[in-house]
Design goal:
39% helix; two-stranded antiparallel sheet; 295 residues; 22% strand; 9 helices; globular; 8-stranded parallel barrel; TIM Barrel
Length: 295
């Protein structure tokens, strides 16, 4: 039996006449009914804000892991950690982070972020160090408040005597998902990532990441993200206009074989981007899951 976890991509903008949180609720319901493992809310410069979408999805589900993608310039790491600690507490620790480090420069500038080049990865590293540090760095100081136990002086962020006390500090830190295949991306993930999600052409870089992490005494799980067009019968794919726009087009049986092949290469998570999202998420749960498990 394969151990690949299937995640789906959630909507951040309307699909035709479908829009809003009612649309989102239907997609996450389909994912949970289909016994999928999780979902990703992508950073979308022109779409809904990922933290808000993830919070709504966490409220409407009981088991799914929700990964909110954001860039490290969106807030201070302390504030991001506090929001996340609150969401972890009220969702049963089902929040994950996906950092969008390497934004298109025009998009970054439009969001008030002018950090460029290798500095983006240095800032992301500081962001993660501080977020984890304050999460566990607080010491209770009685009814008068919290005595900080974490100090950090960096190039992009400084914290003096910070840290959370219970109950914020009691929940697990969110899984950190990272992406990219550049040396900077792999180095960041080797030091700070929990799951690195590759796109298919760059999966060969997974071996390099594994080596870098092992040299640091760490292990980083490997994931793959695919845009897909899946059908029960190959004849349904003939002439489909979307076929040339996706990473993989095939039957559910063929997709199951592909996922098994990824699992044999050490991939533990596959993120599927399929549209229209409600119908395709139901079909993934109804057809791909049983095929993947050999049912």
């Amino acid at each position: 039996m394969t151990t690949v976890d299937i995640h789906v991509v959630l909507p951040t903008r309307p699909e035709g006449v479908r829009h809003g949180f009612g649309h989102l609720r239907e997609v996450v319901r389909a994912a949970e009914l289909g016994t999928l493992t999780g979902a990703v809310v992508p950073f979308d410069a022109d779409g809904l804000e990922s933290w808000s979408v993830a919070a709504a999805a966490l409220r409407d589900t009981r088991w799914l892991t929700l990964a909110a993608e954001f860039h490290p310039g969106v807030s201070t790491p302390v504030y991001a950690a506090k929001v996340s600690a609150s969401l972890q507490r009220f969702s049963g620790a089902r929040l994950a982070w996906r950092l969008a480090v390497d934004l298109d420069p025009a998009v970054a500038r439009a969001h008030g972020d002018f950090t460029v080049g290798s500095d983006r990865y240095l800032r992301a590293a500081e962001f993660l160090q501080i977020a984890r540090g304050v999460w566990r760095g607080g010491q209770a100081a009685g009814p008068g408040g919290v005595k900080g136990g974490f100090t950090f002086e960096g190039r992009f962020f400084d914290v003096l005597d910070g840290g959370f006390a219970p109950p914020l500090s009691l929940m697990p830190f969110p899984q950190v998902q990272l992406t990219g295949a550049s040396p900077g991306a792999l180095e960041l993930s080797a030091h700070h990532g929990d799951l690195h999600v590759f796109t298919p052409p760059t999966l060969a870089a997974a071996a390099e990441l594994t080596e870098r992490a092992a040299a640091l005494g760490r292990t980083v799980a490997i994931g793959v993200q695919l845009s897909v067009l899946l059908r029960e019968d190959a004849a349904e794919l003939t002439g489909a206009p979307e076929r040339d726009e996706v990473d993989f087009a095939g039957t559910y049986a063929e997709a199951a074989e592909l996922l098994r092949a990824y699992a044999a290469q050490g991939v533990s998570t596959v993120v599927l981007d399929a549209r229209p999202r409600i119908e395709e998420t139901y079909r993934i749960g109804e057809h791909l899951q049983p095929a993947l498990q050999g049912a």
